[in-house]
Every structure is written in structure tokens, then in C-alpha cells.
Amino acid sequence: MVVGIIGSGAMGAGIAQVAAMAGHTVWIYDTQQAALEKASASLKSNLIKLEEKGKIKDAASVFAAMHFVSNLSTLAPCSLIIEAIIENLNIKKTVFSELETIVADDCILASNTSSLSITSIAAACKLPQRVLGLHFFNPAPLMALVEIIPAIQTDEQLLSTIKELMLAWGKTPVLAKDTPGFIVNRIARPFYGEAIRIYEEGIAEMATIDWALTHIGGFKMGPFALMDYIGHDVNYVVTETVFESFYYDPRYKPSFSQKRLLEAGWLGRKTGRGFYNYAATATLPNPKEDLELGKQIVDRVVAMLINEAMEALHLQIANAADLETAMTKGVNYPKGLLAWCEEWGKENVLAVLDNLYHQYHEDRYRACVLLRK
Ligand SMILES: NC(=O)c1ccc[n+]([C@@H]2O[C@H](COP(=O)([O-])OP(=O)(O)OC[C@H]3O[C@@H](n4cnc5c(N)ncnc54)[C@H](O)[C@@H]3O)[C@@H](O)[C@H]2O)c1
């Protein structure tokens, strides 16, 4: 099978590597020559490193299967095209309708969008039944999870074909409804939002919140360190998009603390400053290692995460097994949120949420009906 990739940025290059390593010939298209050159150089060096580590046999032949092109019509022989360009609905729609004039009628067209509606993208096509979402995580060669998102127009048979293909690529596919944030980017929102809220209310400093969630909660990174790592240009924009797409549900409300960072150009690690200052001369703040406070923080954030997972289950965004897989493989949570709920006890999760609800009288803290059942 010949695979086409549109956009040779972080995600496009990563997905191209996965497809080439699975034995496909890959055509990678980008409008920017510099982006193609950068992708080509970094893919070459990644493959050489993998060969040196003994993870692949022949880096040169994998690299030779990848072709970097600046003419879209070169993608005519592809049977699957994965788009990973700028996150802009109108530009994506234009690319998809242009692609349809080039490829065969049975070529599958997939988008790696993080937050846009797959149904809207499919609507730009004459054959919308061949369009679906295929959401990889960054870095694509390392992260196993792929969310498969059918648009409401997508041919159901396509889903099993794509699922088999993702398994053959060594990925772990899950099926998600075409709703904002799909699974991971929806359920993970309180990890950031509730942590910021705790900080904004002065309940604890950022370093203490990060310490609590890593040392007591078992998360690999604390929310502030993670947001700085992801970059506020990405993380804030996802939050804002999810909030707007959910008709301004207060549960997903973005914060001014993070917005100001974006406005200042303090995008996180990549600019040397975000919530924390990464300058060589700066010292990172120490947490207050107060176990009682730490436990309160973890209970509040984890209860909100569990509530989000329960709501996604209740609204059939994905089945229980896929929800658990998504959060453990897509964002490396220490355990699935539904399992966490069982372990902790539904009544205890509910007690934390109801307590918050009674304290604040905010719709943000409404508990999912499944927790009461
Ligand atoms: N970065 C992530 O963590 C992440 C994770 C999952 C999904 N995504 C999604 O993947 C997509 C790409 O994200 P990214 O981080 O790789 O972006 P990026 O900015 O690194 O790369 C985008 C590339 O697309 C190219 N491009 C822009 N318009 C184009 C067009 N009309 N035709 C062809 N090429 C075009 C740009 O030149 C650039 O090289 C977005 O939809 C994003 O939401 C990103």
C-alpha cells in the first residue's frame, strides 16, 4: 500500500516514519520546502539512531521508501492519505477537496486533527464516506495510541480496515465519537484546568500541585510542568477550542493565568519560560511537601478526571475498555480512570464532587449521573 502524508511538521514526519517502518512506500507533501528538508534530515537521523540501537535492520532502505514532494499530484497512487497540516478547518477542507481530484475513488482520506470536526472535513468531499479521523499522539513513533474517529458520513466497513492497519503498524487503536477533543483531549482537560484553578485560588503553589500529582497521584509529570512542556500555544488553544465547541460548558473554561502566558509569548520550555522559569540562572521553586494538602489536591483533580471519564462513558463517546486504553497509552496516566473510580469507590468520588458543588455552586462541579447510579 502506498501511503501519502500531507504536512511534514512534527506529526506528519512522525506518522511518515511509522508508515515507512511498517513497510509502506510513503509520499510526504508540504507547501514549505524548508519543512520538507527539515523532516527529511530529522527522519534520516532518527532511523540511523534506531539502527544503531538494533531496533531496525536497515535504516537506509526505510529512508529510501520515503519521498519528499512539493507537488500534490504526486500522491495519485496512494490508497491512504493522512493529513497533518495546520489546525484550520477551511484550509483542511480545501486540501481534502483538492485531494479528491487527484486520488482514486477508493483512496481513504484521514485527518490527524486534534480538535476539529471530522464530519465538517468530510462534508468538503464528494465521497465523504471515505473520510475519517486518525489521531496520533506526539511523538507518533513512540506513542502507541491512535484514536479512530468516524465522521457521521464514514462507511462503517472502513473502520475495521483501518483498525487492522493500525494494529499492523504496531499501534493501539481506539474508537471515538466525533465530538470535541475525541477521548484524550476531552477527558484530560481537568488535569490542567482544575490544577490552575487550585493555584489561582491560592490553595497551593504550582510546585506543590505538581509535587502532589506526581508523588501522591502517581502521574509522570505534574500539570504545570506538563503544560510548559506541551507549550501554551498548543495546550491553551486546545482548551479554548474544547470550551467553545462544548457550547461554553463551564467544566472546560480556560484560565486567564494561562492566557496571559500565551500573550506574553511565555510558551513554556521552548521559549525558556512558562509557568516556570527555565533560564540557566533561575532556580525552580520547591514544593511544600504537606501530605494532607497534597492529598486534597490529588482528590480534587482525580475526582474531576474520573467525572469526565464517566461522562464520556455515559454519553457513549467510547466504550469502557477504549476509555481506559486511551488515558493510559495516550497520556500515560498511572491507571485507567474507571479502574481508579472502582478502586477509590464511587461514593468517595461523588463525595468530593458534591462537596465542591455545594461549596462553589458552580455547574463545573456537577457529578455525572453514572456516579449516583
Ligand atoms: N503537535 C501535536 O502534539 C499534535 C498531536 C496530535 C495531532 N496534532 C494535529 O496534527 C496536525 C499537525 O500538527 P503539527 O504539530 O505537526 O504541526 P506543524 O506546525 O509541526 O506542521 C504542520 C505542517 O503543515 C504544513 N502545511 C501547512 N499548510 C499546508 C497545506 N495547505 N498543505 C500542505 N502542507 C501544509 C506546514 O508547512 C508544516 O510543515 C494539526 O492538525 C494538529 O492539531 C498535533
Blueprint (SSEs and pairs):
Elements: E1 2-6, H1 10-21, E2 25-29, H2 33-52, H3 59-64, E3 66-69, E4 80-83, H4 89-100, E5 108-111, H5 118-122, E6 131-136, E7 145-150, H6 156-168, E8 172-175, H7 184-187, H8 189-200, H9 206-216, H10 223-230, H11 232-245, H12 256-264, H13 291-314, H14 320-330, H15 337-344, H16 346-360, H17 369-372
Parallel strand pairs: 1-2, 1-4, 2-3, 4-5, 5-6, 7-8
Antiparallel strand pairs: 6-7
The chain binds nicotinamide-adenine-dinucleotide.
Any descriptors?
373 residues; alpha/beta; eight-stranded mixed sheet; 10% strand; binds nicotinamide-adenine-dinucleotide
Describe this structure in words.
- An eight-stranded mixed sheet has the order 3-2-1-4-5-6-7-8.
- α10 crosses α11.
- It is globular and about 60 Å long.
- It is α/β, with parallel strands linked by helices and 373 residues long.
- β5, α5 and β6 form a beta-alpha-beta unit.
- The site of nicotinamide-adenine-dinucleotide (NAD) has 24 residues, from α1 and α4.
Low-confidence stretches: none
What is the chain-wise order of helices and strands?
EHEHHEEHEHEEHEHHHHHHHHHHH
Q: How can the largest sheet be summarized?
A: 8 strands, mixed
Overall radius of gyration: 21 Å
Bound molecules: nicotinamide-adenine-dinucleotide
Helix content: 40-55%
Count of β-strands: 8
Distance between the termini: 48 Å
Mean pLDDT comes to 97
Q: Order of strands across the widest beta sheet?
A: 3-2-1-4-5-6-7-8
Structural class: alpha/beta
DSSP helical segment count: 17
Which band does the percent of strand residues land in? 5-15%
The shape, in one word, is globular
